[in-house]
Amino acid sequence: MCGIFGYVGKKTSAPKAVLEGLKTLEYRGYDSWGFAWLENDKIVVKKAVGKISNVKTINSTPVRNSFVAALGHTRWATHGGVTDENAHPHTDCNDKYALVHNGIIENYTELKKALLKKGHRFKSETDTEVVNHLVEDEIKKTNSNSKDSGPLLFEAFRHSFKKLTGLNAVALLSPNNEIVLAKTGSPLCLGLGKEEYLVSSDAVAILPYTKEVIFLEDNQGALINSEGIKLYDLNSGQVINREPTHLEWSIGSSSLGKYAHYMLKEIYEQPKVLSHIVRNYKDAILALSGVVKSSYGTYIIGCGTAAHAALAGSYLFSKIASRHVNFSFGSEFIYLTNFLTPRSLVIALSQSGETIDIIDSVMEAKKRGAKIASLVNNLGSTLYRNSDYKILLGAGPEKSVCATKSYVSKLAILAILASALADDVVSGMKQVAKASESIEEILRKKYVENVKKLAKKISSHDHIYTIGRGLNYPTALEAALKIKEVSYIHAEGFAGGELKHGAIALIEKGTPVIVFAPFDETYDSIISGATEIKSRGGFIIGVSPKKNQVFDYWLPVKDAGSASCISQIVVAQLLAYFLALERKADPDKPRNLAKSVTVK
C-alpha cells in the first residue's frame, strides 16, 4: 500500500533525501505524493496528485550544520478520492505537526465525530487526519509547549496511536526536527547511518544510507531526533533495546540500469535467481523437507501470484513425491483453520511478507498451535518474523508491481522441495537448472522479437484465454493474471479440460488462446482441447517444446521435466510486458494496484 519515508540528519536538504527515498518506494502507491519539512521552525507541506517519479526536485531552503528532518509519503488511496487535499502529509488545526499513514483506521468515524465536537477542523476525507488532532489534544494536556518534544512528545503520540483500531503505520514530524512513529501490522523499518537516521516502509529505500536496519515489531514505536533512535513498547511506554540487522543487499540490485522498465529488468534477472537457488539452497530445502515429512497435515497458501505458485506446489508434491498437500488462497484460509492441530504445518508464500490476508491466516493458524513455514523475499518482514521455519526467496528487490522473479523463485524452491520429499533432491536441482537454461534461450533477442511480434498482433483483442492441464493449470492462471495486471486486457485462465464445460461459448473467430503444452502426461489431452477451440475459430498460440499443426503461432520452450512450468511462464511474462507497451500502459505501475496489499 502506501510508502513512508523519513530522514533525520545533517544533509543540507532533507526534502531532497526524502524525494529520492519515495521514488524508490513508488511501487507501494502512485496515486499522489507529499512532503513535509521545517523552515524557520515551521512545518512546510507540499503535495499533489500524480506519480512521485515525475517530480524532479523540491524547492526548500538548505539548512547547514544542524540536524534537520523531513517526512514524505506516496499514496495508494483507501479513504477519500485521489485529490490534492487527500494526499499526505496531513496537519493539525494549527499546522504544527505533519503526519503520514499506511493502513486503515477502522474506528475513524467515531474518533472524527468526537474531535469535531471539540472544534477540530478537518481538511480532507481521509481517516488519517484524525491522528493529527488526537495528538494535538494530547499535547494540550501537558499545558506546556516546552514539553512538546522528546519522550513527552512520544507519550502524546503513543496515547493517540493506542486509540486507533486496525492495522496501521503512522509517522509524525514535529517542529523540533523530530519524527515519532508506531506500527501495528503495516511495515516500518529504521536505518542507523552515520549521524543520520531513517524510517521507511521498505528497507530497500534505506540502502543508499546504511545497511544497519531495525525492523519494527507490532506494537512498537520510535522517537528519532539528533540523539539517534529510541525504541518504545507501545503498551507500556518503556524503552526497549534491539540490535540492528545487517543487510547484504546491494544498491545496484534495486536500480533500473539499462532497462526501460523494472518489469523487463526483473524478467531478465530470472536465470541468475534460479542458478543462485540451485547452488545455495540444498541444505535449507532438505531441512524443510524433514519438517514436512514429520507434519500431519500440510497446507500451502498464497495470494495473487503467490497463490498460483502454491497451487503449483500442490501438483509438484503430488507428482514428484506422491504427497498430499492442501492448497488454499491466503484470503480464504482463515475460514479453513478449524481442523488445524499442533501437528499441522502451514507453508505460506509471499514476496513482501506483509500481505495482510496471509498474515491474518498465519496468526490464526498459530493460535491453533500449527507450525508455520514460509517462502518469503523480505528479510525481517512480518511473515518472516512469525515463521518457525523460513527460506528467503533470494530474488532480490522486486520493484515492478507485477511479480515475476519472485514467482519463479517460489516454483524452483517448491520443485526441489518436492524432490527432496521423494529422497532425490539432486534430480529436482537438475531440472531447475534446465529451466534456467531454457529461460536464457527465451531471453535471446530473436525470441524476444518473436514475442513482441505476437503482442502487436493480438493487442487489439478485448479477450485472451489461457489453458493448461496438471502442473500447467497454475501456469495458465498466472499467465492470465500477468496479462490482466499490466495490459488491462481481459484474460482468463482455465484447466484445459474445463473449457468445454461452458466457457468455450466465449470463443469467437480470432479469439487468442494460449495453450501450455509441455512433454508430460497432459500433452495429448491439451492438444485435443486446443483442436476443439480452433474448430470454433480460436487463434491458437502454442507454448511447447514441440511444434504442432494446431498451433497458429508457436513459441518453443525446451523441456525441463517438472520444472517446465518455470520456464513456460516466462513467455507469458514477456508477452504481458509487450502487450502493455502496445496499449500505452505502464507495466511497472498498473492502475489501481500496489505491490504489497497491507489492508483488508
How does this model look, in words?
The protein is an alpha/beta fold. The chain has three domains: 3-253, Glutamine Phosphoribosylpyrophosphate, subunit 1, domain 1 (4-Layer Sandwich), CATH 3.60.20.10; 256-443, Glucose-6-phosphate isomerase like protein, domain 1 (Rossmann fold); 444-587, Rossmann fold, CATH 3.40.50. Helix content is 35%, strand content 22%. The strands form four sheets. It has an eight-stranded antiparallel sheet, covered by helices on one side. Strands 5-6-7-8-12-13-14 form a seven-stranded antiparallel sheet, covered by helices on one side. β16 (298-302), α8 and β17 (326-329) form a beta-alpha-beta unit. The longest helix has 19 residues, at 564-582. It starts with a strand and ends in an 18-residue tail after the last helix. Its EC number is 2.6.1.16. It comes from Candidatus Woykebacteria bacterium RBG_13_40_15. It holds the Pfam family SIS. Residues 2-227 form the Glutamine amidotransferase type-2 domain. This is Glutamine--fructose-6-phosphate aminotransferase [isomerizing].
